[in-house]
From TrEMBL:
It is a multi-pass membrane protein. It comes from the Eukaryota. GO terms for molecular function: L-glutamate transmembrane transporter activity; L-lysine transmembrane transporter activity. This is Cationic amino acid transporter C-terminal domain-containing protein. Gene3D superfamilies: Amino acid/polyamine transporter I. Residues 581-601 are annotated as: Disordered. Pfam families: AA_permease_2 (PF13520), AA_permease_C (PF13906).
Amino acid sequence: MKSSNEESANDQVGERSYWRWSKQDFFPEESFRNWGTYRSALSQMCFRLKDRIQGRSDDVTELQELRKRSENDMKRCLSWWDLTWVGLGGHIGAGIFVLTGQEAHKHAGPAIVLSYVVAGASAMLAVFCYTEFAVEIPVAGGSFAYLRVELGDFAAFIAAGNILLESVVGAAAVARAWTSYFTNLLNRPSNSLRIHTSLRNGYNLLDPIAVAVLVITATIAMISTKQASRINWVASAINTVAILFIIIAGFVHADPSNLTPFMPYGAKGVFQAAAVVYFGYTGFDSISTMAEETKNPSKDIPIGLLGSMSIITLTYCLMALVLSMLQKYTELDENAAFSVAFQSVGMRWAKYLVDLGALKSMTTVLLIGALSKGRYSTHIARAHMIPPWFALVHPKTGTPINATLLITILSALTAFFSSLDILASLLSVSTLFVFTMMAVAVLVRRYYVRDKTPQQNLSKLGAFLLIIVASSIGTSAYWGLSPNGWIGYCVTIPLWFLGTLGIYKFLPQQRTPKAWGVPFVPWLPSFSIATNMFLMGSSGSAAFLRFVICTIVMLVYYLLFGLHATYDMAHLPQQPEAKLQQVDNEDDGQSNLEEAHVSVP
């Protein structure tokens, strides 16, 4: 047996305890040393903001320097097999089991299957963009790290805020859906397991069960990445059996007459539903955040990302079609659509299998969410966008316990109060915004390299990107204002085409991916920008209002804290020892980059 001293030593980070709580661990930067330095930092806000907007990271910094701030490395223990199951486990949950019935009933009708096709196509475009970055920069920060390199610190913070928002809201939404299916499994009335209060509608049903599920899954994620991965793929394999049953039994009892009318709410309803059910596709970014724990990123990440997304898209479309054929869209239950639909065709016993399958699916989504979002938060803390205490990796478990606790506590508080429809609409807008930034970053990475690209080409790239983004926003806005019109599209779509053609014809690519790259550049990333913007425009005004409010809160935090912390870290006085070792560190970083770029056999 280990002595108590040996066990205590396992919780030490070098000579310091992992469990430490001093001001230095949360605010070590010079700007927060005392009130005088903080007032001085605030007085330089405009200058510092300009510096951070222009500031850029680089591949070596993300791969080497920032990782050192966690004081311990994460364990490389995942293969393409693990990543594929991470992708499957991180997707099939509340999105398909709850939002399908809700959106078919309210917006799309039987055409909900087309909503999943549209959302899946848009998500696949984003997957291509993520894959190139995850192979080139295999770190835990995901899109935050990629945007820091290509678009700079300020743009990365905007993404980081939305990533954290997505993390918190996504976990809360799935946990609320877990309670709904558990209630249905017990044959109890809807919301009977929630605490009814006199708070505002949408926030008046308190959900302690959702909180408990979040805490349990987060605890598993904090104990061991490999064990959590094993639990996930075993549970996901069981889920696969339940999903196959739903699809096969559903088609056996299907009534094609339920598909008429196919589009009762028109094309606008299809796209409005697509913007909401996009929530069901947001789990794929979890794979990119596991890159630091992947054995061979250049091989394993493309297989895991593209393979899992292809399977998921096909599964979603089949399940949506089955649901539409089992029961008339006007009769679908918005909370537990699949189990109620099977009851409607006389398969009351199937309800229990469906509910259990849904609960298992949502549990694995929460488990993968706890794994991936903790890693996101870790890398954000490494950059000091949030206190660096959250960047620490536990020396014994090799997991970011502090960052996982941050997401879990915020998610639990959100799930306790907020209803699923409010959470899902906000999540989709936030996610689509980040994916749009990722597509822009791919174009910047391919066509701009610092100290190499001529200024004239940089100006052209900026102008063409502005045309692409502006025309995409115009198309989305015109759709929202005049869904039956066509004149506006005669202006916006040709502008988008000309902007993309301009990049293709007049700008040479400055960088070639070493292992795996997005095909058909610039057309595919440009189309991703357009589709993401279009789906954002299809979201309701309430979702945009919540998104704007959350963004304002993020900017206030950034101007008061994040800006000054990152500025201080970017302008640390370099020690003589660091200067002597700089060349060696860059050589080590280049060596690691080359290792990450091993070609797929």
